[in-house]
Amino acid sequence: xxxxxxxxxxxxxxxxxxxxxxxxxxxxxxxxxxxxxxxxxxxxxxxxxxxxxxxxxxxxxxxxxxxxxxxxxxxxxxxxxxxxxxxxxxxxxxxxxxxxxxxxxxxxxxxxxxxxxxxxxxxxxxxxxxxxxxxxxxxxxxxxxxxxxxxxxxxxxxxxxxxxxxxxxxxxxxxxxxxxxxxxxxxxxxxxxxxxxxxxxxxxxxxxxxxxxxxxxxxxxxxxxxxxxxxxxxxxxxxxxxxxxxxxxxxxxxxxxxxxxxxxxxxxxxxxxxxxxxxxxxxxxxxxxxxxxxxxxxxxxxxxxx
Length: 306
What we know:
This protein has one helix spanning 119-122, and strands spanning 3-6, 9-12, 17-18, 30-35, 44-45, 54-65, 68-76, 81-82, 103-108, 111-112, 130-136, 143-152, 155-167, 173-180, 188-192, 198-203, 206-207, 213-218, 226-234, 237-245, 251-256, 259-265, 270-274, 281-289, 299-303. By secondary structure, the protein is mainly β. The protein folds into two domains: 26-218, no CATH class; 226-303, Sandwich (Immunoglobulin-like). Strands 4, 5, 10, 11, 12, 13, 14 and 18 form an eight-stranded antiparallel sheet that branches. It is globular.
């Protein structure tokens, strides 16, 4: 399994991660976590080469966004993924984008993916702008990678290169930024369920930065502990980041393979497990309010070779 080198990090191919959650309350918001990683190059050209063009793509697996499951997504050259609409709008708005339910905005700006000799396009792989996809992992842990190789309408010598990743069997997704020359100055990033329910990462210069990556995880239910996990390797050594939401106690017990490995303060809902082993391995995790049986769902992280 190939590994993508990111500084001192090796982010293993995304088939490593499996998360299982059960939502029993309204799924209205996503938590946004900063992560490291890089774009997985797209290999399939979906045929989106235009200005203000939307292309419908069948998903390789059913994907649930918030509380609805979809089998296709409408991808705009302007950097958004719409699940219920087909809008070609090129002028971004700060969220909510009224009446545009169930949409992800990796980088909504006035972009173009046509190939009319733009200097910015000629420097992409094969000299082409467009939207390109790939699939990593094996069932039931596949990831659908959607890469935009675009230029800005206002300056076709500049790049807007970014990627959206959808996870099989999960409601989580990633956004990774390559070179986006205008940064967050004129773009919108986030996710929207409907007009009152949305989570914005940045808009027109305010909010987060269009750098590295963000992991969007569905917010847990009050009183219910929801756990997510990400596996990667640091200098070849297995490492797992755990994120949780829901517990109210001051301390959290962390279990790996049913063995208590740490008790930590419940601050920020985050813990990194430095396993410090190489090669392959499979680990199960669960977190509980310290000294209690109020525990999260179990998640499994599997490391391949490399």
